[in-house]
Amino acid sequence: MRKVKTSLARVVRRLKSWSRRDWLLRVGAPVIGLIIFFQLCYPADRMLPFTRVDGVSVAGMTRTAAAQLLNQAYDTHSIAIYMGDDKKPVTSPTLKSAGIKVDNTPRIERMNYPWYMRLIPTSLLWAGLKTSPVPAPAFGDNFDAYVEATIMQKCREDPVNASLKAAEDKLVVVPSKRGGQCEKKDVLASMKKVAPVADRETSIRVARKAIAPAVDDDQAAAKAKELNERLKDGIGVTVNDTVKVALAKDALSWLDITVKDDHLVATVSLERAARWLDATVAPAVVVKPGTSYITTKDFTETSRQDGAAGQALDIAGTFARIQEVVDGVLARAAVVTKAVPPLEQYTRTYSASDAGLTALMTNYAKDHPGTFGISMVELDGKKRRAEYNGTKQFVTASTYKLFVAYSLMKQIDAGKRDWDSSAACFNKMISQSDNACAESFLTSLGLTNVTKDINAIGLKDSNFTKSGGPYTTANDLALLTGMIATGQNFSSANQQRLIAAMKGNVYRNGIPAGAGGTVADKVGFMGGLLHDAAIVYGPNGTYVLAIMTDGSSWATIADLTRQLDTLHAQ
Questions:
Q1: What is the rounded average pLDDT for all residues in the chain?
Q2: DSSP for 93-153, written as a single string
Q3: CATH of the domain at 303
Q4: 307 with 436, same domain?
Q5: Residues 490 and 537 in one domain
Q6: Domain count within the chain
Q7: Residue 8 CB: number of other CB atoms within 10 A?
Q8: Is 113 within the bounds of a domain?
Q9: Predicted confidence (pLDDT) at residue 174 exceeds the cutoff of 80
Q10: pLDDT at 24 exceeding the cut of 70
């Protein structure tokens, strides 16, 4: 232990005896040598530590990777392109999208670390900090195409004419704005002067020839002065012996200011002026019309007591007078009125005839909302028949199941099908309007075959193959139900089966609700369509009735049936 202490003391005394020079020679020289050795060994294909090029760090990267990174930075670098005196750029494309390329590969290759620099201690740390000029951009094949497709489309800015707007009780000028148009050669020249640097904002400004507006601020000011003076007291409208006045604030708010033949034109808005006319002028001129009482029998008017005509404001006519005041043609507008015909109240009676039934159907359809197709045939008694829109085609809704039933019965009569195997589904199809059973039968029968079957017995306007269908008419439904009722084209057994199923129909709010007696029917409903086709066995005889509607109601169908049933009883 004593020997160790003695040795350490000896070393300390020796170090204390060294001079600064000794220190430099004995310690500094090896360190410097080690640094130079490290610098001499630094890979030749690597960028020096701390190297940044145009703000992009490429420290320690291979030259290839550094060039790729820098080129990518320039590809995504944006150019803000301004037109004329615009404060905002019209577009800011990347260099790549504009067809401009800055290739930094040669530049990076020149940024080597020569041997003589490697001999300078610490040069590894600072030699990479020197800057180099940015390469001049190259303009690719698609540069001109980009300018044409993008820049030139934004090159024109249409001028904005001066206008006027209402501010309380006067019109004030909305300033104009000059437009501009640039030339392609100027755009190309400006863009080819671009000198992008990755870490700085790059912008160019393209010269643009100014285009003056057709209406400048002075012209607008003159028009404002003219209208403000003319309408300072508002617009007066003479109504009977009084004058209704729209205040200047209101009158000016009616004006739409447009340009016609390079001049400002003030046009009164009918919509805005109408609100004032309706509220202020109309009540002073309205005279309620009387009522004309008209009596008809069938389609013939038998008596009339005319009521007095009324009077109402003619808004369009009065509006035209107001426009003339704005234009300076009139100093004051006079109200314009129009006659209102008297109301009509009908007392209608109908004869117990074909004409009477037809008139009832026609008038009823006209007096109620919706579209109607109606057909009625008496099978006994007077055997009257009538129709309204009897040949108008409607989508069948579920009344098509009567057609399916006919084709099915035809095959049963021909021995091609068995009733027992079809009965359950047949009854569900007719009585409950079951869709699954109907679609199963229809698939096996075929759309074309069903259409041929029903066309062959005279249902000429019914069709399953027409686009958007199937279709039928009130006349065709009345004809088919008449055949069912009288057994035409049906065997007796099949006739009774179908009538029994129709009598069992669970939907009873249409014809059954309005007819007296027993009803065998088939309804159809889909969306706004409500149809009913029925055989009515009443105390005054049997008739068939088909009512097809779009946009009506079951209650209306029942009410129409009730009125027809009453006339049938006469």
A1: 91
A2: -BTTTTTEE---HHHHHH----HHHHTSTTHHHHGGG---PPPPPEE-TTHHHHIIIIIGG
A3: 3.10.20
A4: no
A5: yes
A6: 2
A7: 10
A8: no
A9: yes
A10: no
Which of 321, 331, 334, 343 has the alpha carbon at shortest distance from 285? Answer: 334
DSSP codes of every residue in 71-95: HHHHHT-BEEEEETT-SS-SB--BT
Instruction: Specify the pLDDT at position 207.
Output: 86
The amino acid at residue 265 is V
Average pLDDT over residues 359-379: 95
| List of long-range contacts for 68-71, beta carbons under 8 Å, 24+ apart | 70/104, 70/108, 70/198, 71/102, 71/103, 71/104, 71/105
pTM above 0.70, yes or no: no
pLDDT value for 113: 86
Cα–Cα distance for residue pair 176/160, rounded to 1 Å: 5
Q: Does residue 282 form part of some domain?
A: yes
Structural domain containing residue 284 = 233-344
Domain end point (choices 318, 344, 370): 344
Q: Residues 162, 219: contact at Cβ < 8 Å?
A: yes
Q: Provide the β-strand partners of residue 210.
A: 180
The region, left, alpha or beta by phi > 0 then psi within -120 to 50, assigned to residue 364 is alpha
List, for residues 300-350, the tens digit of each pLDDT value: 889 999 999 999 999 999 999 999 999 999 999 999 999 999 999 989 989
Q: What pLDDT digit, counting tens, does each position of 92-109 carry?
A: 999 999 999 999 999 988
Q: Residues with Cβ < 8 Å from 342, sequence gap 6 or more?
A: 289, 290, 291, 292, 306, 307, 308, 309, 310
- Residues near 107 by beta carbon (within 8 Å), at least 6 away in sequence: 53, 67, 132, 134, 135
Among the residues of 244-395, which ranges form H helices? Answer: 248-253, 270-276, 282-285, 315-326, 354-367
pLDDT for the residue numbered 565: 94
Residues 385 and 413 in one domain: yes
> What is the rounded distance in angstroms from the CA atom of residue 397 to the CA atom of residue 560?
20
Please state, as a whole number, how many other Cβ atoms lie within 10 Å of the Cβ of residue 242.
10
Residue 173, domain member (yes or no): no
Angle between helices 435-445 and 447-456 (to 10 degrees): 80
Q: Write the DSSP assignment of 498-548 as a string of letters.
A: HHHHHHT-S--SSHHHH-SSEEEEEEEEETTEEEEEEEEEETTEEEEEEEE
pLDDT digits (tens, 9 = 90+) for 490-522: 899 999 999 999 999 999 999 999 999 999 999
3-state SS record for 524-535: EEECCEEEEEEE
